Amino acid sequence: MISQEYEDSGNETSGDDVDFAMEVEAGAAFTTNEDYQFEVLSTDDIVQYMTDTIKDVNTVVQMPAATTRTLLNFFNWDKEKLLERFYDGNQDELFREAHVVSPFKRVSVTKPKFSRKILGTEECEICFMVLHQSQMTGLECGHRFCYPCWNEYLTTKVMEEGVGKSIACAAHNCPILVDDQSAMRLLNDPQIRVKYQHLITSSFVECNRLLRWCPGPDCNYAIKVAYVDALPVTCRCGHVFCFACGEHWHEPVRCELLRRWIKKCDEDSETSNWIAANTKECPKCNATIVKDGGCNHMVCKNQSCKADFCWVCLGPWEPHGSSWYSCNRYDDHEAKAARDAQDRSRAELQRYLFYCNRYMNHMQSLRFENKLYEEVQAKMDEMQDNNMGWIEVQFLKRAVDILCKCRQTLMYTYVFAYYLRKNNQSVIFEDNQKDLESSTELLSEYLERDITQENLPNIKQEAQDKYMYCNLRRIALLGHVHEGYEKGWWEYTD
């Protein structure tokens, strides 16, 4: 992780469960992350980054920090776009669109409603309490309410609605936004102030294309990069993910295909495929029917239909007579189309299950492989207790590292293969996939052997040979896929 200063603000300029030990927009090539510079930011670092951005803008425009922060929120923290609009456009229109009072001209402030009973008191327009002026406060728009009402209003917005940067004035139809300083001043509960700060910080990170929250469980760090790319980044919590899409690092499949795969797995589309593969529709009324007996003579149970048809060919039952097995001679166009659609659905389901089962199998194996770290660490400690050096036993950890990387790569190769159209290069890819899979299984099996003081020298040499070969096969597979991206070899199914 390399810290550095960035001239680019990194913000958008348009409107536009295994924790793996180790993603990619269409058009982006796979490269190593050796030159990919990124920095892990804590919450305090993010706040400081926000403060620095505000100071950078204020050195040019000379506005109150609260106003600048609201304007930056409006432009998704794109300071270049803010400055361009500030100097090239209508400033009054800019402040009006951002729902902030211009600090450069005097505004007409709504006069407070003084109580006729006691001089120096005001009536809160929310609770209608008559209070001393010192117990009332408001924003630049001039609307004033008592402190308890402000606190209740802001607390509701923050805790119940989850609103941070876009809280409007409590007055009816007033568009002016509550700035951060005012919100922090008016909120009483420290926990609610922390929640508000978290909402503001989250909004800042989500608006900034060079920042991304770490998706690791219970992690509060963010990653800051010099430029956006589909490359792996490693958080301080140890989680490794693709900066472009936020998923686990998924080489060799690209982000776009992975999104399609995850959506396909999450949705109920496969339930529909199962229904299509295991049920049929009545050729007359289209009612869905499940065959629950051996007889192929179907009678629709829809009382208004009761059609007789053949389960095999979906044609009328009458021409079959007693020789139902001769229905292949029946070539009615509609029945043939129904059979063809059924076959296509069943074939597609089987194809999906083929790749999905292998994908899930490697994911499950990866879970077991991660547990190997604990066993290996215990074995390494035992070996060091028997007067072996720390360096001598590191081959075990290295072997498990390589094994996990190979498992993860194999897992995502099946996503890649599912969408891949067949051609000469896809055959080479499948050969590389087969070689990596077989060598990975051999390494996994070998690491489950018992290691003793007597067989250690042989096991060490053989384990090193096996994990080095696995790593070479993994590099070869990824290199071939990478070359295919560069040369346009790969074509995908819809």
The percent of residues in helical segments reads: 40-55%
Compute the average pLDDT. 80
Distance between the termini: 38 Å
Strand order of the largest sheet: 1-7-6
Structural class by sheet pairing and helices = mainly alpha
Based on CA atoms alone, the radius of gyration comes out at 33 Å
What does the largest sheet look like?
A: 3 strands, antiparallel
InterPro entries: Ariadne, ARIH1-like_UBL, E3_UB_ligase_RBR, IBR_dom, TRIAD_supradom, Znf_RING, Znf_RING/FYVE/PHD
EC number: 2.3.2.31
Organism: Photinus pyralis (Common eastern firefly)
Domain RING-type: 120-331, 124-176
Question: What would your notes on this structure say?
Answer:
The chain has 494 residues and is mostly helical. Among the domains are: 161 residues, Zinc/RING finger domain, C3HC4 (zinc finger) (Herpes Virus-1, 2-Layer Sandwich), CATH 3.30.40; 166 residues, Up-down Bundle (Four Helix Bundle (Hemerythrin (Met), subunit A)). The chain contains 13 helices and 13 strands. The strands form 6 sheets. A 3-stranded antiparallel beta sheet has the order 1-7-6. A two-stranded antiparallel sheet has the order 2-3. Helix 1 packs across helix 7, helix 9 packs across helix 10 and helix 11 runs antiparallel to helix 12. The two termini are 38 Å apart. It catalyses: [E2 ubiquitin-conjugating enzyme]-S-ubiquitinyl-L-cysteine + [acceptor protein]-L-lysine = [E2 ubiquitin-conjugating enzyme]-L-cysteine + [acceptor protein]-N(6)-ubiquitinyl-L-lysine.
